[in-house]
Write a structure and sequence with these properties.
single chain, 496 residues, alpha+beta, Rieske Iron-sulfur Protein, FAD/NAD(P)-binding domain, 5-stranded parallel beta sheet, 5-stranded antiparallel beta sheet, 32 strands, disordered N terminus, binds flavin-adenine dinucleotide, binds FE2/S2 (inorganic) cluster, flavoprotein
């Protein structure tokens, strides 16, 4: 900016010690146009400087999820979407607006701070209202945190049959031999500080929605005022001889075994160290590693005798507020069958980390009667041979693919087309295109097949989404004077 920023713009108003405040000139005003962002350095800290609606804002540049530089992401109105896994942050406040991150960004305040926990309350003495959360995964955690962020003063009890506090499950298939301590989402002090009770090694055996109680495997019974069911799914085991040998363990938690046979479960995929595989036909295939991907099954057996409505495959049906058919009973995460807004409210089930978190948040808001619909856009990532593939949208039923880049170069963007519209995108080494598509889908605007096809290069593709509020007209001017390359690069924008 042309003038030295005021202390209020780039200092930490939360800071206890005014001497820790930093004020630095970071750029010229003309360096940043409206709708743009850039990374600047203030006292050796990366800061994301944005200009939106004429207003300059500065928030942390490092995504609170896995630390991606947000300046390489996608800015749209008041929010920036991370290029790696799609977290969104409000550029004016640094608040998290879309998962999978769980923390907010510093808002050019405590510039030394890498992350910030959104302001949260605690239990209020005398408030007896009890929210019971079944499962200690992504959905339960975001529900608990949102309740406290929204100043819910009652009792929150999170119950899981695992022996670990909520942890980042997505790491299990990416980082082998990971230490359990390093993947915890929050530590015990956090739960104590915000009065969130976490009961470990306790399995729900039944739910009585008339009495509003849940019975556990240790014989205890807990009553609730409101209930979240988010016990997720588990991998289907391979039903073959040898699976029950003593030294074979299914690894879908952070547990790890150094036995003759090693298992690593990646969502629904099982990696086995083996010698050979015998097919039904009798054919023997020598193999060192076997990858089994035979799907997951819902952890919902304990609901079978309840009045909670389930699908034929035992997923729990919910509406767009994550209500089940029973009052005060909600479901979220991998176990929920829900109407997906971007798929014209088709009832589907999605096993994505970010979607489970988003649903946990919607549950909390609706528990508090802050009526809120689920409208998150699915965003998924996975790592294969060291490369991250990102995916957004809902591609089921696609009939065509529009490809940018080359598979062979390991740099591509695949746009999934159905009914002449882009319904999903997958990308490798093509950031922030997948985030750009997610952002466009989140605004409810259609990307037509024509738009997807016209755009030849990544930079134009990016521009297309950046200027999505404009009508795009491809004009071929002075064709005689242009090289073929220039012809396809010329693109003009006109206001609608
Ligand atoms: C190895 C692995 C890798 C993954 N990688 C990715 C990825 O890269 N990106 C992505 O988007 N998603 C990924 N996923 C999917 C993602 O982890 C899930 O979508 C997400 O965890 C679902 O959250 P949830 O809260 O619904 O359930 P979960 O996180 O599964 O939590 C459910 C909890 O409930 C507990 N529970 C079950 N039954 C009971 C009971 N009766 N009583 C008490 N507790 C019970 C379970 O033990 C579990 O702790 C991965 C999953 C796995 C397993
Ligand atoms: S690093 Fe930003 S969403 Fe994961």
């Amino acid at each position: 900016m042309s003038t030295k920023p005021s202390r209020g713009e780039l200092t930490d108003s939360d800071s206890e010690n005014p001497s820790e405040e930093l004020t630095e000139v970071v750029c010229l005003e003309s360096d940043l146009q409206d709708g743009q962002m850039m990374e600047v350095e203030v006292g050796h800290h990366g800061v994301l400087l944005t200009r939106s609606g004429g207003k300059y804002s500065a928030i942390g540049n490092q995504c609170t999820h896995y630390g991606a530089p947000l300046s390489k992401g996608f800015i749209s109105g008041n929010r920036v979407r991370c290029p790696w896994h799609g977290s969104c942050f409000n550029v004016h406040t640094g608040d998290l607006e879309e998962y999978p991150g769980i923390d907010c960004l510093p808002c050019h305040k405590t510039l030394r701070q890498e992350k910030r926990i959104k302001r949260m309350g605690t239990a209020v003495p005398g408030v007896t209202h009890t929210v019971l959360l079944l499962g200690g995964g992504a959905a339960s955690l975001s529900c608990a945190e949102t309740l406290r962020q929204e100043n819910f003063g009652g009792r929150i009890i999170m119950v899981t049959r695992e022996d670990l506090l909520p942890y980042d499950k997505t790491r299990l298939s990416k980082v082998m031999n990971v230490e359990s301590d390093s993947i915890l989402m929050r530590r015990m002090e956090f739960f104590h500080q915000y009065d969130i009770e976490v009961w470990l090694r306790k399995e729900a055996l039944s739910v009585d929605t008339d009495k509003k109680t849940v019975t556990f495997d240790d014989g205890s019974v807990q009553s609730y005022d409101q209930l979240l069911i988010s016990t997720g799914c588990r991998a289907k085991g391979l039903d073959v001889p040898g699976m029950n040998l003593g030294n074979i363990k299914m690894l879908e938690t952070n547990e790890k075994k150094n036995t003759n046979t090693e298992f690593f479960l990646s969502h629904s995929v099982l990696f086995l160290k083996v010698k050979e595989v015998v097919l039904k036909s009798g054919k023997v295939i020598p193999a060192e590693v076997l990858i089994v991907g035979i799907g997951t099954m819902p952890n919902s057996e304990y609901l079978k005798d309840s009045k909670i409505q389930m699908t034929s495959k035992n997923f729990v049906k919910v509406d767009k507020y994550m209500h089940t058919n029973v009052p005060d009973v909600f479901c979220g995460g991998d176990l929920a069958m829900f109407p997906l807004a971007i798929a014209k409210n088709r009832m589907i089930n999605i096993g994505h980390w970010q979607m489970a978190q988003a649903q946990g948040r919607i549950v909390a808001l609706n528990m508090l009667n802050k009526t809120t619909e689920l409208n998150s856009v699915p965003f998924y990532w996975t790592v294969l041979v060291g490369k991250t593939i990102r995916y957004t949208g809902y591609g089921e039923g696609y009939t065509e693919l529009v490809i940018k880049g080359q598979f062979e170069d390991r740099k591509f963007l695949a746009l999934y087309i159905k009914d002449e519209e882009v319904i999903a995108a997958a990308g490798l080494n093509f950031d922030p295109a997948v985030s750009a598509v997610a952002e466009r889908l989140a605004t409810g605007k259609v990307i037509t097949k024509d738009e997807a096809q016209y755009v030849k290069s990544f930079s134009l593709f990016y521009t297309l989404f950046l200027y999505s509020h404009l009508l795009i007209i491809l004009v071929k001017l002075n064709l005689n004077n242009m090289t073929p390359e220039r012809q396809c690069r010329e693109i003009y924008f006109c206001e609608k």
